[in-house]
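Q: Please design a sequence for this.
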């Protein structure tokens, strides 16, 4: 009930609204409105400051709508431009006045049709006819150019050419692509011109599958699997393939929606460790040790990226000398996005805009507005807001400190708890604030990062902190959580369902470079600029969490703690050499590392295993990933030769080159839509819809990936001039182990002389040890390089 006050003989009821903090309200802050109810009527007083803020907020919203509309028009007519319409129409009108009919009689037909109206003069009809024909011609040209570009982009022969050699046909093809690609493309300009992901032939996929498992199976097992596969390819496979072909004609991408739903959203296990992944800060550099300042610059840089994203000013990723575009669809849900738990399946909630973030510190949640006076907060102003949170002495409310553990545990308890306790009142308002925030920020109380005096332990601790933290201090459902540590180090934890790691990596590269090279810091370590005392304080989110819900929180936290404590992580920089020296060996850096991983795994386990390397299918519209089965017969032959003392260096080199070429061929097949696993996965989904059983598909999809690998690409090399700033190298990122008795390995090739590795496994497995595998990997890298005659001294000279 509102408070009542009695003055003279009048009873007054006063309501007040403001954006001020309950504890730290400043006297000069204006309220939005104030009105008093009296027996004489309503006395209404409006605040000019509040009206100004409302006006500026509305202006900002309408600007965004206009920009979206403008970008929609520009993207909609690409590869043409809106101005080209005027050129075409003027050209048509000019030929008409020159008594030349460019329309082959179409303009005359339009003129006769208009003549039936009786409302236009002859000159007006001629002008309207010319404009209508010019517009139609312009639209036809756009459709023709777009279709031609789609046909051109369907050609992938350039990818299978020998490295460094380009045929005349490929050069002509490249020129044609550039001609039809238009000028100054925006982020989504190429989307409608990208080809659809093709459905491979069942027999081709089955044959490639059998080839991939041959080195992993005994003769009897392989014979049995061959019989199952051949029966599937002849009988059930074609029936399932028919439905899949039908879907490929109807849907934009026959894989992506099912992949998102069945691999990610329907998973009922914890997201933490099992699905989410992380990105690290720069390896050696901490530009400021002030936590609030680093958060200020970092948050502002993220928001600058969002601003560019909203305006579609981010350039699309182009391959082959800025010729071949990749799909940009995954950027759409980067911000203002949250995964919402459900009992059977989760959903992804995405908003067009969000004007606040939520910051977590010492078990408390704060809502921070990102705009003031109609503009984005400056870095120093964000630092001021973060410092206010750090200085806030208030204690967490009951159940608040561990609340985020709900997002770290099993999905079903979190879904039921959310429905029962967060569907109304202050809990709903506060949860909405978190889920509808632009992104989530954690001010971590620990100090992390590379320490020269103890590099292994410091990097391992840093990786584990980003991967799972304390299990209750990251909101694992948000599209990403931006984490800033007490000593100024930062990082990111990302949810996987909405996009893959290269998309988050693109954002992260921009944030790190903008933070260091554009925004910078003052001499005292603070963000540049001045504070602004007029900005309202961050608002504490209010919770009323009953004991029953707190019990669920504790259960989720226990589940998450068991999972987190079982993660064995080893993250380390490999300094011996990098891709510069590998390229001197005339081989693919990725193939080199993958073969080193095969050799390391064999030395570690004494056997080969099914290996997953993530590739991408973004050459196609709405493409995501495909699997490269890195363990091949050729790689196994090479590994066996490396551990055989009777084999000569020449024989090992020959087998290495064969295995390397095979790996590159498999990678190219995966990128061009001829992979194995996504096709088999979709056939399996169709079989479930049809309620038919396939022993072959069931066995294929139940095979564990005991070595799961992924390369983190550097996509914006121009942002980091490593020749001038050699210490500004990225640490990359990593993920948890996919199999309970296997390894997860992520790596990034930084510059010419550094490779960062992130290895994960589980302590509970007696077969795995991340540090042991790391030692084998370092040795394998050096052993393979030694085949090419590069000694330690010659590597130092190359550095």
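A: Design:
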């Amino acid at each position: 009930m509102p408070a009542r006050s009695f003055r003279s003989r009048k009873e007054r009821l006063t309501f007040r609204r403001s954006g001020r903090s309950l504890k730290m309200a400043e006297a000069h802050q204006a309220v939005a409105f104030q009105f008093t109810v009296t027996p004489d009527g309503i006395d209404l007083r409006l605040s000019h400051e509040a009206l100004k803020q409302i006006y500026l907020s509305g202006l900002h919203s309408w600007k965004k709508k206009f920009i979206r509309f403008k970008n929609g028009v520009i993207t909609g007519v690409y590869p043409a431009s809106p101005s080209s319409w005027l050129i075409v129409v003027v050209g048509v009108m000019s030929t008409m006045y020159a008594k030349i009919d460019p329309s082959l009689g179409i303009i005359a037909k339009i003129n006769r049709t208009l003549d039936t109206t009786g409302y236009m003069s002859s000159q007006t009809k001629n002008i309207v006819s010319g404009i209508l024909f010019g517009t139609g011609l312009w639209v036809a040209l756009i459709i023709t150019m777009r279709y031609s570009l789609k046909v051109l982009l369907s050609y992938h022969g350039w990818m299978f050419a020998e490295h460094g050699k380009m045929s005349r046909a490929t050069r002509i093809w490249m020129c044609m692509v550039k001609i039809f690609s238009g000028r100054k493309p925006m982020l989504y300009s190429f989307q409608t011109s990208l080809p659809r992901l093709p459905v491979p032939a069942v027999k081709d996929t089955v044959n490639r599958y059998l080839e991939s498992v041959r080195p992993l199976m005994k003769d009897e097992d392989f014979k049995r699997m061959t019989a199952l596969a051949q029966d599937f390819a002849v009988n059930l496979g074609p029936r399932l393939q028919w439905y899949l072909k039908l879907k490929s004609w109807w849907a934009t991408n026959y894989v992506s929606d099912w992949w998102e739903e069945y691999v990610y959203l329907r998973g009922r296990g914890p997201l933490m460790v099992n699905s989410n992944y992380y990105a690290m800060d720069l390896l050696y550099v901490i530009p400021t040790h002030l936590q609030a300042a680093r958060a200020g610059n970092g948050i502002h840089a993220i928001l600058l990226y969002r601003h560019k994203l909203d305006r579609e000013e981010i350039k699309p990723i182009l391959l082959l000398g800025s010729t071949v575009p990749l799909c940009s669809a995954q950027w759409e849900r980067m911000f203002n996005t949250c995964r919402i738990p459900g009992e059977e399946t989760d959903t992804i909630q995405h908003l067009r805009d969000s004007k606040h973030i939520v910051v977590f510190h010492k078990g408390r949640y704060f809502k921070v507005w990102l705009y003031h006076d109609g503009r984005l907060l400056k870095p120093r102003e964000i630092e001021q807001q973060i410092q206010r949170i750090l200085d806030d002495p208030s204690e967490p409310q009951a159940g608040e400190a561990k609340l985020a553990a709900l997002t770290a545990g099993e999905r079903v308890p979190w879904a039921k708890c959310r429905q029962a306790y967060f569907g109304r009142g202050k809990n709903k308002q506060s949860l909405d604030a978190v889920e509808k925030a632009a992104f989530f920020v954690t001010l971590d109380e620990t100090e992390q990062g590379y320490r020269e005096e103890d590099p292994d332990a410091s990097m391992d601790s840093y990786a584990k902190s980003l991967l799972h933290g304390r299990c209750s201090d990251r909101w694992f459902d948000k599209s990403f959580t931006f984490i800033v540590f007490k000593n100024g180090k930062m990082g990111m934890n990302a949810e996987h369902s909405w996009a893959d790691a290269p998309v988050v990596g693109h954002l992260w590269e921009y944030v790190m470079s903008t933070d260091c090279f554009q925004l910078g810091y003052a001499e005292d370590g603070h963000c540049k600029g001045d504070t602004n005392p007029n900005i309202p304080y961050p608002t504490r989110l209010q919770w009323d969490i009953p004991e029953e819900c707190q019990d669920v929180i504790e259960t989720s936290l226990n589940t998450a703690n068991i999972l987190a404590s079982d993660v064995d992580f080893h993250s380390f920089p490999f300094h011996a050499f990098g891709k510069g020296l590998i390229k001197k060996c005339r081989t693919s850096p990725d193939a080199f590392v993958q073969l080193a991983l095969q050799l390391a795994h064999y030395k570690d386990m004494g056997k080969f295993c099914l290996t997953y390397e993530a590739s991408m299918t973004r050459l196609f519209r709405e493409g995501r990933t495909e699997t490269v089965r890195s363990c091949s017969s050729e790689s196994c032959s090479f590994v066996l030769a490396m551990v055989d003392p009777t084999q000569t260096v020449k024989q090992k080199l020959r087998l290495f080159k064969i295995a390397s070429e095979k790996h590159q061929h498999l990678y190219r097949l995966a990128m061009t839509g001829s992979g194995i696993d996504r096709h088999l996965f979709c056939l399996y989904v169709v079989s479930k819809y049809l309620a038919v059983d396939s022993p072959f598909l069931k066995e294929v999809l139940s095979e564990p990936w005991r070595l799961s690998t992924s390369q983190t690409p550097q996509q914006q090399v121009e942002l980091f001039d490593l020749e001038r700033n050699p210490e500004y190298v990225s640490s990359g990122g990593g993920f948890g182990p996919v199999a309970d008795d296997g390894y997860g390995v992520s790596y990034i090739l930084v510059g010419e002389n550094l490779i960062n590795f992130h290895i994960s496994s589980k302590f509970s497995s007696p077969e795995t040890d991340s540090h042991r595998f790391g030692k084998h990997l370092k040795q394998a890298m050096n052993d393979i390089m030694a085949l090419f005659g590069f000694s330690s001294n010659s590597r130092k000279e190359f550095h």
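Q: Thanks. Anything notable?
A: DSSP finds 24 helices and 24 strands in the chain. Confidence is low (pLDDT under 50) at residues 1-31.
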